[in-house]
Specification:
With 234 residues, the protein is mainly alpha-helical. Helices cover 50% and strands 12% of the residues. The chain contains nine helices and six strands. The strands form two sheets. A three-stranded mixed sheet has the order 1-5-6, with helices on one face. The chain starts with a strand and ends with a helix.
Length: 234
Amino acid sequence: GLIGANGAGKSTFLKILSGEIESSSGEIVFDEGLKIAVLGQDQFAFENYTIKDAVMCANKRLYEALKEKEKLYMSEEFTDEINERLGELEIITAEEDPNYDCETRCEKILSSLKIKDFDALMSTLQSADKFKVLLAQVLFLGADVLFLDEPTNNLDLEAISWLENELLRHEGTLVVISHDRHFLNKICTRILDVDFKQIRDFAGNYDDWYMASTLLAKQAELKRDKTLKEREEL
């Protein structure tokens, strides 16, 4: 979990980690083949997509294969070339969706977030529901590494509880920014305290960080008082 004051650099640090922006020094390296998903912040990026398509396009390779298959199956004549291409697309589909349940998974996630009309355009949704679709998108991919910036925004308590359980089942790495103490307590095992140019690493959840940082602050205060007293005695 990334915590810190507003403007301390949490979002910038997350963008550097996820590769959205380059760092001024150093290097971020991921193992080859890892799937990485970042919670989008642009609620208007998919206005002309249906809700279901906006979620499923998170897996670009699968989404494009499904759309091309759909188009080819509408052909008036099935040539050898079309049949060959359909075979290639079927291989892609099987690789990306081995259980052939992508649409079911997509609809299940959306339903859990109280989004019901899967075929409606994104442009018809209120801002809060658009954010839910972006959240569904990042969860749908089944990524190894998730980067989430304030994922509980616009969610009611029931949806937050559902999200917590989903993230607890996630077997990969999760990096999250949140001001929700209860949420951080539930899902985090490490806390990074971003304090402008300094980042401090704490084991445990938010409450563990709070106790440890309070102790460190107290120790620093005692050390400062001791130093001042010694100077006065010189």
